[in-house]
Amino acid sequence: MSDLQSTLPTIGILGAGKVGTVLSRLLLAAGYPVHIAGSGSPAKISLIIDVLAPGAVAMTAADVARTSDIVILALPLGKYRSIPADLLEGKLVVDAMNYWWEVDGIRDDLNDPRVSTSELIQSFLPTSRVVKAYNHMGYHDLDEGPTPAGTPGRKAIGIAGDDDLALSDVAALVDASGFDPVLVGSLRDSIALQPGSELFGANFTASGVQDALTRFPTTERGLEVAAAREQEIAA
Ligand SMILES: NC(=O)c1ccc[n+]([C@@H]2O[C@H](COP(=O)([O-])OP(=O)(O)OC[C@H]3O[C@@H](n4cnc5c(N)ncnc54)[C@H](OP(=O)(O)O)[C@@H]3O)[C@@H](O)[C@H]2O)c1
């Protein structure tokens, strides 16, 4: 192990599907140790990991939560209550999840314009430091997009959170994985990264992400969110 590797935090990934395996590859390439889990036993994902993310260590979700410094949530949002919350106490947790009704079913609680889904995750993990990141870019673009810092046209990932130190740690992670981090705001503001926004699915540079964020309040979704939140305050 190099000196660099030994000083980097261990990244845990909950979810060994399309996004979980792509993020594993990106972070392994950046030198981070990666621990990864699906919903079941490590044996169930070991072949997938050997092929798609060689070098990552397959574990149970509980062991990933226990042994990792930073844990990325890359499982279906509708299953968030199966996350081992007690083992994530005090940890930095990166929420890459989205509400997708075809997968999650019709869930009004996950589709409320007043509350971002990362705020829900923060409520479920009250002592963890939750940062939204890696959710808005499709996994193919994540896979094909990484470039070194300073590369012209480098693609960007929006990040949002309520804890400045956690945000700066996630910004460093995003940068190391090959993308420019763009600060979107608080967890409440992360609704601008969710499905229904221009940024959801976006594969933009930092200035493109910034421009889309500036437009968000005037878009149909931005107006819907603002109206729902104003009604809540008035009630
Ligand atoms: N696909 C994209 O382009 C994309 C891009 C950005 C973000 N996202 C978001 O990332 C999340 C994952 O999407 P995906 O496309 O990667 O889904 P996917 O390919 O269906 O993979 C989901 C993974 O989550 C695992 N899982 C389910 N419950 C779990 C639990 N309690 N603990 C640990 N792992 C669990 C599944 O394991 P089993 O197979 O054992 O159930 C599977 O390995 C979603 O919230 C999605 O919205 C997706």
From TrEMBL:
SUPFAM superfamilies per the UniProt record, alphabetical: NAD(P)-binding Rossmann-fold domains (SSF51735)
Recorded superkingdom: Bacteria
Residue stretches making up the Pyrroline-5-carboxylate reductase catalytic N-terminal domain: 10-99
A molecular-function term among this protein's GO annotations: oxidoreductase activity
Database matches in InterPro entries: NAD(P)-bd_dom_sf (IPR036291), P5C_Rdtase_cat_N (IPR028939), STEAP_metalloreductase (IPR051267)
Keyword tags: Oxidoreductase
Listed name of the protein: Pyrroline-5-carboxylate reductase catalytic N-terminal domain-containing protein
Native species: Herbiconiux ginsengi
